[in-house]
Specification:
Shape: globular
CATH architecture: Alpha-Beta Barrel
CATH topology: TIM Barrel
Strand content: 5-15%
Distance between the termini: 43 Å
Order of helices and strands: HHEHEHEHEHHEHEHEHH
Radius of gyration: 18 Å
């Protein structure tokens, strides 16, 4: 397929002005409680550190299933995201809870490896039980204009995923422009992505509202063209309930209520979980719970 950088010109001023309008929305108390619970159900709790252990993975899985013992009606999160060698531990810990196991693959986070190794990485994670694969694109090849290479690599990883869903990480902080982000989104969706994702969480800037809006508009246009719904995952740097609700408003007004579901929208932000729980406690009781009452993940 012939990809052109200027096929969908991006008006930077227009994008940022529209985001500013989303930020001005207010949500009333009952709707706010529902929105916070929805945001919790969309979380991918993540542990992607060199010091990860089986014990830490089991701990985060326990939190994923029951985010807080202090409230009975808090939903489970959508998924737990781990390195491939911890997939089996997560799968056993989560059991039949319904929480998915996601695994990063393809030489995460740099993506600098051979296709053979990337496919082996992916197949290993899937064989260990991963329900979802989060791959990274080859940003260097993309920035050199090798768009067909990026397409072919994503398509090959998608095939290696089998039944597992594929989230394609663009690492938007390294793509330099909204125009590049839009083109990378289009390539990922055309190549078979089930989700497109902003960031690995290892590069700054990570997820931002303007970048996410550009990607949501790409998803909207793809849906108009193909009839297929693609998911969206902003990841990295989203830490506060207020930010999360701004993302939900933006999704609803850009794509519609059908996308307000863990099937089509996720937050890659473990730090966000505790702030959402604190705000839920505040709405229920009128006061904040100390952070000492929440696990640090």
């Amino acid at each position: 397929m012939k990809y052109q950088l200027d096929k969908h010109p991006i008006d930077q001023v227009g994008v940022e002005e529209r985001v500013a309008r989303f930020n001005s929305r207010s949500i009333k108390k009952q709707s706010k409680v529902q929105a916070i619970k929805l945001a919790i159900s969309m979380l991918d709790l993540t542990t992607l550190e060199g010091k990860d252990s089986a014990g830490k993975v089991r701990q985060i899985c326990a939190k994923a299933v029951r985010p807080w013992e202090g409230m009975e009606d808090v939903p489970s999160v959508a998924a737990v995201c781990v390195y491939p060698n911890h997939v089996k531990t997560a799968k056993r810990a989560l059991g039949d809870s319904g929480v998915k196991v996601a695994s990063v693959a393809t030489a995460f986070p740099s993506g600098n490896s051979t296709l053979k190794i990337k496919l082996e990485d992916t197949r290993f994670a899937v064989n260990e039980g991963a329900d979802e694969i989060d791959m990274v694109i080859s940003r260097g090849r993309f920035l050199c204009g090798e768009y067909d290479f990026v397409f072919d690599e994503i398509a090959a990883v998608k095939e290696a995923c089998g039944e597992a869903h594929l989230k394609v990480i663009l690492e938007t902080g390294e793509l330099d422009s909204y125009q590049n982000i839009r083109l990378a989104s289009d390539i990922a969706m055309d190549a078979g992505a089930d989700f497109i994702k902003t960031s690995t969480g290892k590069i700054e800037p990570a997820a931002t509202l303007p970048v996410t809006l550009v990607m949501l508009e790409a998803i909207r246009d793809y849906f108009y063209r193909t009839g297929k719904m693609i998911g969206m995952k902003p990841a990295g740097g989203i830490r506060k309930e207020k930010e999360a609700l701004q993302y939900l408003v933006m999704v609803k007004e850009t794509l519609g209520e059908a996308w307000l579901s863990p099937h089509y929208f996720r937050f890659g932000a473990s730090t966000l979980a505790n702030d959402l729980l604190m705000q839920l406690q505040k709405e229920a009781t009128g006061y904040y719970q100390s952070l000492d009452y929440f696990s640090i993940d």
